[in-house]
Specification:
The complex is a heterodimer of chains A (247) and B (142). Chain A is an alpha+beta fold and 247 residues long. Classes of the chains: A alpha+beta (247), B alpha+beta (142).
């Protein structure tokens, strides 16, 4: 009797072992319902010609002693398509205004009254690439500002899931998870006729610390009164021009 | 004994049949959270095998939304002690050194429309490193 149990336990275990990888593969698939919500959001964002939003950014950092801290930055971002953006940021070690009028970008630090102005590419895509590769910084929510953000976000994605419904700042939304090699990202997209991103978390999955950058987006205004002159820097009295150090 | 084997054979077949459906179960019944755990475990393995990777918090790929508010910890650190260079005066800071805060006792000096900080004989020029404000040690301006 004991032996017969042993005899049939073995094939059962074998079978479970055979099927387990398949079930894992199934769980890691890209759920089209999740990508559809993401696309609805990016399509909507692309269709909005001008908007302003307040972003609260929390960047996890690891101190040398091993303590994890958050570095926080508040920003007000104003976008006028196709190629104008202004971002005012205040936070840990940061107080600056970024101007971009489609031709020239300026980074201005009002605390020290210093600025740097350089010629820039004439598209958002070109600008963000230039900022990242040549100047060494980014702007809040650039992933979501692109007029066609969807293919960029979906690049190399190996997993897409709807985690569920939740509320961000009292607004009902879908919580989505996406994974690509080295990076997981989560997006919260509001319900209703204006599918706006309310929160965006990017996690570095390549390091043991698994640090994240989280952004909360509030005060969305998709029909703001935009003064076009706000995208061009006007030098205040006594402001000093400084350089961007080469990377 | 024989009937036990026969019965257990039926049980095995039933298990087999239901096992075929097992892959579908997680999709329908298992909470989404477990799917995330699966991902975490998988990526954690990748992460540890990557060894002493630096904490460049997802700054590439999909991560270009970040502020990069991190105060550039390595480069921005004050110049390391230089025991190997005893010939230099103790107070001299090598040209090209980048610091985030000026040493105390600095006086602004403007030379050729450019402002420098004279900090005990070492001259610093303000610059952006990324979007961080830093000070670079330069040769004494003429």
């Amino acid at each position: 009797m004991k032996r017969s149990i042993q005899i049939f336990i073995f094939p059962v275990l074998l079978l479970l072992g055979l099927f387990a990888p398949e079930s894992r593969a199934e769980m890691e698939a890209v759920d089209p319902a999740a990508t559809e919500i993401l696309k609805r959001m990016t399509d909507y964002m692309g269709s909005v010609n001008q908007f302003s939003v307040h972003t609260q950014n929390s960047l996890e950092d690891m101190l040398v002693l091993g303590h994890r801290i958050d570095l926080d930055v508040s920003a007000k971002v104003t976008v006028s398509r196709p190629n104008k953006i202004r971002s005012e940021r205040k936070g840990d070690r940061i107080n600056q205004i970024f101007y971009y009028n489609g031709k020239i970008l300026t980074l201005f630090n009002p605390d020290y009254n210093v600025y740097s102005t350089v010629e820039a590419p004439d598209t958002f895509y070109g600008l963000f690439k230039y900022l990242h590769e040549s100047l060494g910084f980014g702007l809040p929510i650039t992933d979501l500002i692109h007029a066609d953000a969807f293919p960029l976000l979906m690049e190399d994605v190996t997993l897409a899931r709807i985690i569920g419904k939740t509320y961000i700042d009292g607004t009902r939304c879908d919580h989505l998870l996406f994974s690509r090699p080295g990076v997981d990202f989560q997006v919260w997209v509001s319900d209703g006729s204006k599918p706006l991103p309310l929160k965006y978390v990017v996690t570095d999955t390549e390091t043991p610390a698994r640090l994240s950058i989280s952004t909360w987006m509030t005060d969305w205004n998709v029909d703001p009164l935009v003064d076009e002159s706000q995208f061009t820097f006007i030098q205040p009295d006594g402001a000093q021009a400084i350089v961007f150090l080469p990377l | 004994m024989k009937t036990i084997v026969q019965k257990s054979a039926i049980v095995i077949i039933l298990v087999l049949l239901s096992a075929v459906d097992i892959p579908l179960l997680p999709v329908q019944l298992v909470p989404e959270a477990q799917a995330i755990f699966g991902v975490r475990r998988r990526t954690a393995v990748v992460a540890y095998s990557a060894g002493a990777a630096t904490a460049t918090a997802a700054s590439h790929a999909a991560a270009s939304s970040q502020q990069q508010a991190a105060p550039a910890p390595q480069q921005a650190a004050p110049a390391p002690p230089q025991p190997a260079a005893p010939a230099q005066p103790v107070t001299a800071v090598p040209v090209g050194t980048i610091v985030q805060t000026l040493p105390g006792q600095c006086t602004p000096v403007t030379v050729g429309n450019v402002q420098y900080q004279d900090c005990g004989g070492s001259f610093y020029r303000t610059a952006f490193q990324g979007n961080n404000l830093v000070y670079v040690v330069v040769d004494k301006p003429l």
